[in-house]
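Here is the promised in-class demo. Please do not try to memorize the tokens; focus on the logic of going from shape to residues.
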């Protein structure tokens, strides 16, 4: 199903198509230079950059505004969840998680605004998000535990069953970007399809209750995506954390044994 939007058509007709023709690109009749979902993604990216630039100039410790309060509440909520799921090193993963949360949530909701479509209702976009998460958490695992240490993570604690577990774990990990992308795509695509069908069959007001449900579902899908991302990151680095805690515990025991006064 090829989705189109009024905003995408306007920008293609008056901006991207003329640029493409001027560059010598031949466009077939009825085809635009840039797909609609890419146009919407560009708009989201530009809007987020401009918003961040505007908010940076408004930040204040003494007199924070309402927008700053809202952003801080969302940011603190995400960081608290990251602390619970990932552990003490959660801060260095904050840029990815927060960016995914804002990007996916806006992309999910945008389709409910007349003239727009949800870019996350396109499988190419959700697959890109899923693959990005897959590459990122595996990179963090290799970075934290080393190449052999991270591969050992797939083998499990029992040596004789390690070859079987290794194959199963590899297949499981390879399926993760697929499950992330298809889950998000399927839910948002179905939501847009239902709302669009109701708007065609009934007056616009009839789809308003469904749009409220869609807003809730869009938020839940963004939350599930970032929560699974946190779980995958935690799984990639948790062994190193456990080893660190174990070493710290051993050091503490040694110090206590060496100092009877401290032990008492």
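The designed amino acids, position by position:
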């Amino acid at each position: 199903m090829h989705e189109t939007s009024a905003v995408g058509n306007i920008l293609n007709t008056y901006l991207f198509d003329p640029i493409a023709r001027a560059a010598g690109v031949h466009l077939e009749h009825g085809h635009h230079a840039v797909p609609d979902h890419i146009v919407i993604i560009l708009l989201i990216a530009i809007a987020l950059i401009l918003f961040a630039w505007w908010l940076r100039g408004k930040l204040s410790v003494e007199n924070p505004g309402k927008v700053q309060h809202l952003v801080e509440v969302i940011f603190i909520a995400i960081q608290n969840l990251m602390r619970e799921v990932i552990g003490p090193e959660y801060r260095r993963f904050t840029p990815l998680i927060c960016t995914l949360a804002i990007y996916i949530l806006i992309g999910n909701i945008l389709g409910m605004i007349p003239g727009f479509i949800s870019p996350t209702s396109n499988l190419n976009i959700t697959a890109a998000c899923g693959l990005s998460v897959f590459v990122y958490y595996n990179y963090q695992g290799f970075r934290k535990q080393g190449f052999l240490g991270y591969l050992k993570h797939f083998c499990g604690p029992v040596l004789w069953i390690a070859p079987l577990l290794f194959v199963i774990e590899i297949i499981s990990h390879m399926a993760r970007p697929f499950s992330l992308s298809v889950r998000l795509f399927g839910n948002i695509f179905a939501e847009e399809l239902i709302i669009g069908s109701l708007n065609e069959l009934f007056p616009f007001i009839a789809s308003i209750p469904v749009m409220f449900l869609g807003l809730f579902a869009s938020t839940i899908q963004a939350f599930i995506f970032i929560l699974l991302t946190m779980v995958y990151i935690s799984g990639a680095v948790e062994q190193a954390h456990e080893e660190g805690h174990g070493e710290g515990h051993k050091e503490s025991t040694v110090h206590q044994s060496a100092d009877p006064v401290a032990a008492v």
